[in-house]
Design a protein that fits this description.
The complex is a heterodimer of chains A (about 270) and B (about 280). Chain A has about 270 residues and is of the alpha/beta class. Chain A has one domain: Rossmann fold, CATH 3.40.50. With about 280 residues, chain B is mainly α. Chain B folds into 2 domains: about 55 residues; about 200 residues, MetI-like (MetI-like fold), CATH 1.10.3720. Chain B contains 11 helices and no strands. In chain B, helix 4 packs antiparallel against helix 9, helix 5 packs across helix 7 and helix 6 packs across helix 7. The chains are: A alpha/beta (about 270), B mainly alpha (about 280). Chain B: InterPro entries: MetI-like, MetI-like_sf.
Chain lengths: ~270, ~280
């Protein structure tokens, strides 16, 4: 059973292989108020190079789904495959980088030291560590800040450092859980632009949880709309927007049309309560 | 009478100087205020003892204590080595080391947290006066039994603080280690121990004062003819109160230096903690 599933994706798809697939995924939390269905019958396929946003109101299971992919939560039933293997195997193979809602930098380590942390754990050589730290710092425009400590930097800079930390090692998948949720609009616009540039340069597969419609539409190739109680997928929208996206694209009719469809999807999910 | 008058004048002068100095800013002023306070206190003490002719058995004058300090410096040094370096410091290192290792084990296995912590609590509640004679019987009169008393005294506060510190990481910090597929030891070394340091140093600072008390008190229950506790208890019997006071001065200096040393290491090791930043 297990080995068949591992073999299947590699054999079947020629150009854009499936990186993440979920089938009949259910996750039920036992709480003191009785069971809570965080995810119900979730089916989804994510191809290599996709930028997939998960959008929905709080409690819709978008973060839970991301955490299932990362093997930080265990589903009650159903299967998830990441790179063709179980999330646990993918985690142990260091297949993904995870960016949390808050930067979560260790205060006793400098910015450079925080980015070096995964590299130290994964056993990169000293020279390679230094080289990679410099490169990812440049990527997030934080060159020259490697000696500073997290608490000496602004929130936006800390979040950029945490993205650099997730980029430092060679994971093809980037899982981002509302990384810009706590930042103001101006900083967020800037970081969105940078993230898009980074995505087109590195060709990583990105899963991005957000509750901002413009952010989801601006960034994604696919938008997964979710709704709560029970957490489920209500719509999957393929974006017709080109890969090159200046910030002004947000005023184009195509953009507004997709945004409209996302809003409709979110409203439909809420219709019963 | 002239001594009392002099005491009053010096006190008034010191008060006036400190009131003026405390309004000024800067390192020199901040340093001068406590120094002036201390000097005035010592002088007033001297003046009161001489002016009222207080018996040296009740309260020797500072000058007498200082003279005794100079005359008996050889004995005092011997006692210092015996009690502080051999007894207190050995016990401190052994006790704190054992507590830290135990904390890591307790943290790893939850049933130990529930089983060992109450036992540690029980041991900590035992009065030192009660266990010191027993430990002297077990480990002999020399400094080894004093170190044992110190071990018992410092073990629990360090253990409790360290266990609490090791649990003081946020879910996100632990999740991050999980996404790196970090082993238990890696996450202990790179996350939980650094995060626990502020707690551990709290325990170490408490233990530093306990260690000195333990080593001195334990000597009351049997010791070779050297040691600060031995000297204090026998000198009281001989009415040599000036020597008792000289030992107290040594104890105060050693205790402050011990605590200050631990606090300095703490500042270097936990510079990132909000309580230490910008100092």
């Amino acid at each position: 059973m297990m080995t068949e599933q591992v073999a299947a994706p590699a054999a079947s798809v020629p150009q854009a292989p499936t990186v993440i697939s979920a089938q009949g995924l259910n996750l039920v939390y036992e709480t003191s108020d009785g069971p809570v269905q965080a995810l119900k019958d979730v089916d989804l396929k994510i191809d290599k190079g996709d930028f997939v946003s998960f959008i929905g109101p709080s409690g819709c299971g978008k973060t839970t789904f991301l955490r299932v992919m990362a093997d930080l939560e265990t589903p009650t039933s159903g299967t998830v495959l990441v790179n063709g293997v179980t999330p646990e195997a993918a985690r142990k193979a260091r297949a993904y980088g995870y960016v949390f809602q808050a930067a979560g930098l260790y205060p006793w380590r400098s910015i450079g030291g925080n980015i070096r942390l995964p590299l130290e754990i994964m056993g990169y050589s000293k020279a390679e560590q230094a080289e990679r730290v410099q490169r990812v710092l440049e990527l997030v425009e934080l060159s020259g800040f490697d000696k500073k400590y997290p608490w000496q930097l602004s929130g936006g800079m800390q979040q950029r450092a945490s993205i650099a930390r997730a980029l430092a090692f060679d994971a093809d998948i980037l899982l981002m859980d509302e990384p810009f949720g706590a930042l103001d609009e101006i900083v967020r616009d800037h970081l969105n632009e940078q993230l898009l540039a980074l995505w087109s340069r590195t060709e990583k597969t990105i899963c991005f949880v957000t509750h901002s419609i413009p952010e989801a539409v601006y960034l994604s190739t696919r938008i997964v709309v979710m709704s709560p109680r029970p957490g489920r997928i209500t719509d999957v929208i393929e974006s017709p927007l080109p890969k090159e996206r200046p910030l002004e694209i947000r005023d184009s009719p195509e953009f507004l049309e997709i945004a409209h469809r996302v809003r409709e999807g979110l409203r439909a999910g809420h219709a019963y309560d | 009478m002239s001594w009392i008058l002099a005491g009053l004048i010096v006190w008034a002068l010191g008060l006036w100087a400190n009131v003026r100095l405390s309004k000024r800013k800067g390192r020199a002023a901040a340093l001068a205020v406590p120094v002036i306070f201390g000097l005035v206190l010592v002088f007033v003490w001297e003046a009161v003892v001489r002016g009222f002719g207080i018996s040296p058995v009740l309260l020797p004058a500072p000058s007498v204590i200082a003279a005794r300090f100079g005359q008996s410096s050889g004995v005092l040094w011997q006692d210092f080595v015996q009690t502080v370096l051999k007894g207190a410091l050995t016990g401190y290192v052994l006790g704190c080391g054992a507590a830290l290792l135990t904390a890591i084990v307790v943290d790893r296995f939850d049933f130990l947290r529930r089983g060992l912590l109450p036992v540690g609590n029980f041991v900590a509640a035992l009065p030192i006066i009660g266990i010191a004679p027993i430990l002297v019987m077990w480990f002999g009169f020399d400094w080894q039994s004093k170190a044992a008393v110190v071990v018992v005294m410092v073990f629990f506060p360090v253990l409790v603080n360290a266990v609490q510190g090791l649990a003081d990481t946020s879910a996100m910090q632990r999740d991050l280690m999980r996404t790196y597929a970090a082993s238990y030891w890696t996450s202990l070394w790179k996350l939980r121990l650094p995060a626990a340091l502020p707690f551990i140093f709290n325990g170490l600072k408490i233990a530093s004062t306990l260690a000195l008390i333990g080593a001195i008190v334990a000597e009351f229950f049997g010791s070779p003819i050297t040691g600060m506790g031995f000297r204090i208890s026998t000198s009281v019997g001989l009415l040599q109160l000036d020597l008792v006071w000289a030992e107290i001065v040594v104890a105060a200096l050693a205790g402050s230096a011990f605590y200050g040393g631990v606090a300095l290491i703490e500042r270097a090791a936990t510079f990132w903690h909000p309580s230490q930043r910008g100092r």
